[in-house]
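Reopening this ticket.

The earlier resolution said the output was attached, but the attachment link was broken on my side. Pasting everything inline this time so it's all in one place.
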Amino acid sequence: MWKSPGPVVALDLPTEEVPLDERQQKYLDVCDEKLGFVPNVLAAYAWHREKFAGFSTMYNELMLGESGLSKLEREMIALTVSSANHCYYCLTAHGAAVRGLSGNPKLGEQLVMNYRAAKLSPKQRAMLDFAWKLTVHPIEVDEPDREALRKVGWSDRDIWDIASVASFFNMTNRMSAATDMRPNDEYHSQAR
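Inline output:
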């Protein structure tokens, strides 16, 4: 049974203000079994059952649910948004995911530093251009930006998913910054 590793954020939160239910505990146990560790972002939310449920449900739907975007493309969005926000936790964790899913350590590093340096398909480039603009200049996003995505083959449903993933990681980046969340050491050496 998974137990909290101790503080993973700079806040002195109660260990288990609202303890996880059996299903949530099993979720963490499966993460530990499959990955060899529980991601600190999950550990950070594990102090409160409802907060953990909200975070994990949204994450699983956006990153693992049905979509016209591949798992790799969703991770590429997470990494590009995190690059714009300089999110140490997410750059480390999603950099490892992009390296692993793509089989290309160079792609992970390029997206961390500057997604424009990566060799991408026009469709992926438009996707990341949109995610970047939505992160850095959200007030400027308008119909020509959506039309640029349609022009390279993204459907309106796909545009919703691109925006949803980008928006979610803008939120998680801000929570990570606010709490000084630290990435698991394991991420640093994965898929290199």
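Reporter confirms the inline version is readable. The radius of gyration is 17 Å. The chain has nine helices and no strands.
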